[in-house]
Amino acid sequence: MLIRSHFLSVCVIICFIESALSVKKDVVFVVDKSGSIDQSDFDTAIDFLKDIITALTIGVNDVQVSVVSFSDTYNEEFDLNDNADQASLLTAVNGLKSSITTNGGTFTADALNYVQSSSFTTGKGARTDADPIVIVMTDGLSQNTAQTTTAADLIRSSITGSIIYVIGIGADLSSTTQELLNIASDPDADNVLYVTYFTYICNLVPDIAVKIDSSVSVSVAGDCEQTTTTVFVGKGGVVVTTTTTTTPTTTAAAAGGGGSNSVHMAASSDSDNDDTAIIAGVTTSVGVVAMGAAGAGMFYRYKKGLGPCNKVSSGIKTAWA
Question: What is the model's pTM?
């Protein structure tokens, strides 16, 4: 009887320790897939999610993850309880690169209303003893700021213990954009994150991973593009960010020529003038250059170097949103 009692005591202690060490979080990523986002940038956002997930312990007694994508419409790509381990979750997230095509507008309010009414239900895998977290990723303002603010407030008021983080990306936003501040839970300084380009979003992996599970230790990946001084000229005015981190070596840009695939080192912009990249007389470090009729053709992103600009990415741009 004494042995049995001792055995039960040990079991209770072990169970208590396991419970204390587990981090139960139900996390819903709300990911912008609107037409203002290049497909390659969307894929970069998906890699960002994968890097965060890799840093976490995934499981029914730990962190569960769902993804809701949105543009003109929204879709829950998978529920909180659809992937019970890290391997299956990473496979599901990676599959979004091939299953989602960016297009349409930015109807953030509709996506948040769906999250509030459906994503955190028991039928979708939400747990009553897990902390609910919403992480919104977007590159622009929503179609209706008032409705988006109301939808975010409804999540906070109706889902006990919920917290909303916001990641803004691109020249149309900044860390002080009022809509981002409205969406995020207080304090804004902790819960609104911003990068000037998708290229740099990998720098936020440690920030987000620790917000989900404070016990994890994760560093920025060695191949992550580090920001230096960046200047953007567009609808949002000039946004300047400065860090002292080192930038990995990139491919030097070719001198501009006359063909449709050449690099024009002069004023060049898209049809609605919101992605102006290289402006005569302005020192520009990162931007988009569009060549060809009506903004179609190759586009390049550049970073300021000690010498000529360095190309950091390129792709095909068939139309400007």
Answer: 0.69
